[in-house]
Amino acid sequence: MFEQPEPGHRDWYAFEALRALPRLLLMVDRNPLSATYGCFDRQYWHYRTSDFPCGMSQEFCLPLALACATPLPGSPYHGSERLRDLVVGAIDFARRASHRDGTCDDYFPYERALGALVFSTYAMTESSLALGLDRPDHQEFFAKRADWLRHHNETGRLSNHQALAALALFNVHLLTGDPRYRVASEGFRDLTLSWQHEEGWFQEYEGADPGYHTCTIDFLAKLYRKSGDEVLLSPLGRAVEFAAHFLHPDGSYGGEYGSRNTYHFYPHGFEVLAEHFPTAARIADSYLLEGLPLRRRYFNDDDRMCAHYVYNWMQAWVDRRERAPVPLDAVRGPFRKYFPGAGLFAVRTEAYHAVCAVNKGGVVKAFTPQGPLLSDTGVLVRTASGKVLVPHLVDPGHVGSVDVDAGTVACRGLLSRRRQPLPTPWRQVMFRLANLTVGALTGGNFLRRLLQKVLITGKKRSGVRFERSIRFENRRILVDDRIVLDDASVGVERILRSSDATSIYVANSNTFQESTLTPWVELSELVPQLNEARELILPTKVVAVPDA
């Protein structure tokens, strides 16, 4: 293992990737005589706490393939025959574990999840290309999956899945030479581009999510690199410019102000686009100078997600071109930029960089070069009946306004009930019965649509109103909140100012970034006043950057 590189050096990508490889090798069943040889779902093959293998997990083969194929500095894995064998075993297991039509499951049996299918298919086909595998049985399997993709899609608008479907199909075209898969790839490409807003962002369920936005950039940039398709360049240029507003001066990126609450950052797409767009180069440079060396990146290292950025780092190392790194902040000054379509207001002063989600009740985060300054996801209340009410959902019933010149934001609306349905043994039994009957007959999308409504897009509004105003000054941010109990039957037992609260289900949310250490503030001493007066104006929250 080599020494830690200097900040800004290309080898930071390799350094981080190599540190992660042992974790991935822990996940896979390495016994060639095992019935689950090549399976990366440790919950299934080792702990046996799951009753089906997660098809998404088979994407973990790609970091192993790239480690075998790529001469990363100081790597003990380059040229490893064992890694090559494990990659082949992983593809073989995916082939055996898939349904007859080539589909796979992610969260429940008979889900036939498009997301799991495109992530794992891209990873397996990319592994085959990287290692020069020429297996007719594998190509037949990939073609079967591609044929299913040609005629199916999923519920909900997740642009990153559509972009990755286009990329996976193009890989199948490269491996098989079949022009039908290139045509299908172009269909998913066009659908993805049709979901791009004129402000540059791609739809993720209910709006713009800067974290997932970098995934879509990454997948489309990879597709451009492989296909040379000039149709992609202009949309990618707009996407890069939008993304630049959510790179913070400490090297972190994204947050709860996005529609899906993610901190995702995929650097490879920016490295690919660096030769076309200077902003893409500056974003990638900032990540190498600050995000990785200062540990300001997000950490998403649980058993389901720990491979996503590992192979992305390896690909970024390969495609990084020699240049003196220049961070984005070195070439941009103060600005105020409101994206009304996205509902996001980005503010950069000489002292800090802030982003406010006007469409999410005024969720706001701010950063200085030294780290997080403010992270506020709104005032949460728990009622006497135990319901948790929150302001931070994307809700068309909320009203928000921005005065760009004055640097002020005003939001108001109804608090919604936070849903957190948890599994129990009997619930799981009933859910599995639904999987084995309704799911098996409908292909999973019917159940998926119901779950999306319950866990993601559904809003159960309360009779409690909130109002929030925020003023962005040069060195200070002031936040004012008001709560009104319009429903006479509601009593409150607890009030908190939250820093990193989320209330919808997103697999890649609730990860770690330094801003998540911002403390929640207990305000329950104000409960009697609220219950008696039926309204409460909270003390102004003032966050200031100390004078130099």
Protein described:
With 548 residues, the chain is of the alpha+beta class. The protein folds into two domains: 13-330, Chondroitin AC/alginate lyase (Glycosyltransferase, Alpha/alpha barrel); 335-419 and 460-544, no CATH class. Helices cover 39% and strands 17% of the residues. The chain is built from 16 helices and 17 strands. It has helices spanning 11-27, 42-45, 61-69, 81-97, 114-131, 136-151, 159-176, 179-194, 210-227, 233-243, 268-273, 278-291, 308-319, 425-442, 445-457, 527-533; strands at residues 203-204, 207-208, 335-339, 344-348, 353-357, 363-368, 371-376, 378-383, 388-390, 399-403, 408-417, 461-472, 476-485, 492-498, 521-522, 535-537, 541-544. The strands form three sheets. Strands 8, 9, 10, 11, 12, 13, 14, 15, 16 and 17 form a ten-stranded antiparallel beta sheet that branches. Strand 6 and strand 7 form a beta hairpin. Helix 3 packs parallel to helix 13 and helix 5 (114-131) packs parallel to helix 7 (159-176). The model has no long low-confidence stretch (mean pLDDT 95).
